[in-house]
């Protein structure tokens, strides 16, 4: 069996077929069909290309469009991990199905499929007992009775023809699919359990275990046969009354009960964990709206189930379940996101009550998701039992505490620490080697750090995707390396997203600094680990400046990464915008007066800082490496590519808006565009106001970071306050 094509479906960390019992059901079913001429097809993903849930809940789901288009399907079989968004205990949200699809062009085809399925079902049963196989047929389906009856007479099993069965015998396949199904259900009869009197297979008692459905699917022009065979419920027959008796599930349920959860909570926690593990492995990500909201809903429900446990107990239990560190960190981050959102909702609801004390509780609950206890507390505050000042102070304290818990900080750099300079994108150091050497030497001399360029990767073509990823990962994993700097940006960092060792960075955070195309990896690392990184200067473009690194650039970098500074970011009176060709950069650039920061839309905001370059941010859309921007103060800048102007900015900013990335944002700080005219800057202001129309956060432009010089260093994931044109770092970004 090790050489069979379906073995690969089990080679995943969160495979649903986790035990020999469940795998045995799948393999025996598929081997029987393969021997009878069926072609194995790989499973369909349970997520869409954009990371949202695809709701694959039956073996037919991936093929509905083919069948609705009346195209032939042949004779295929497959194992399909499935997911349902709704269900009641003890249903599984994540489960496996194996089955077949076949064209039905004549009565002989239906006869053959009925026998194929009958034999595969008997093979898959743990005890292969034909005398315990019972088949329920609706009396209206006379064309199905003959083939199924013949198969039972030949191979064993009992047929039940019912006039008004109490289980479904008719199926529809959703809007947009001109398909209808009618069919039969196969049951396993458990001995010694169930009703006191004899009953039929459509009884809901423990005597009857449903196994599968054989459905005749009818389109506008063609007919097909579909079989969906439940893997867990069949494998569990040898162990107990439902799927939770399976060893891989029963062990987790027992562990949850021993940890302190009630039996019902324990079962539901295992259920939700399996669903989230499956979805997470397939790249699903939480979202505020649409199918992605199912992932978020499941995360929050799992956190509620684990609420009776301490944080350490919950983490230990999830580890017993088999959850990876990334899974546990992501679940924790989702809880922290919810806590931050609740703080904002409490503040908004309190503001509503101050203005309209007669607002109904139902409206506040529906709009802000508040509990009864929270509503009672808010109403008490609005009646004066607590002053508005005390309430605001409490809420600010909560925000600060949540922010402290929501991130990890790298150790601060010290003189003598080793820093590795990497090139995840453009290999600019090979084009301008003298400038690169000057940048390494200047930073080392003025900071006291030991700065070296990453060595070539043996066995890899220089500059290849594999070489760049290996170079970056080596710097992440090196225990003697305390920091990583970008040599220069580029266009190709997104090629490395699936090759980065996120676990290594989470386990041993270190200062990581770069900008422009570095956005891709900053945001991916933040999404996966919540570790603070630094959007700031690179070696070739800043530290290699002719005449030495600009004072404000170097000072901001050292303040944030070495000195543990916090406070208001300084304003620069001069800017180095002049273009000098690096091939002949034998003189320092001439400074020009800097334009002041502009408050485009006034206000005050607090949140975690998240900085990046807009075109690079857009490369993460539809990937599992995009962080949740809600609640953050965004610091965004534009590309410095030749020809990039207001029209390109409008295109990119509107894409951000339409993708929902600005929904729920606390504030927006826009970087200073390099070499733009006054008219271009005025056009950008107009675009920003249009893009942000209907959103309530403050907006500031002409901020000193990104593609400008001097450049500020902005830490990702650290709490800040934006007030007017002042951006204040509320606490150190390093420890």
Explain what you see:
Residues 606-722 form the LD-carboxypeptidase C-terminal domain. Residues 419-536 form the LD-carboxypeptidase N-terminal domain. This is LD-carboxypeptidase. The structure is a single chain. Helices cover 39% and strands 18% of the residues. It is an alpha/beta fold. The longest helix has 31 residues, at 325-355. The chain starts with 19 loop residues before the first helix and ends in a 6-residue tail after the last strand.
**Largest beta-sheet details:** 9 strands, mixed
Number of E strands: 25
**Mean pLDDT, all residues:** 87
Global shape: elongated
Which spans of ≥5 residues are poorly predicted at pLDDT below 50?
A: 385-391, 397-407
Question: What's the helix count?
Answer: 23
List the main descriptive attributes of the protein structure presented here:
single chain, 735 residues, alpha/beta, 9-stranded mixed sheet, 8-stranded mixed sheet, 39% helix
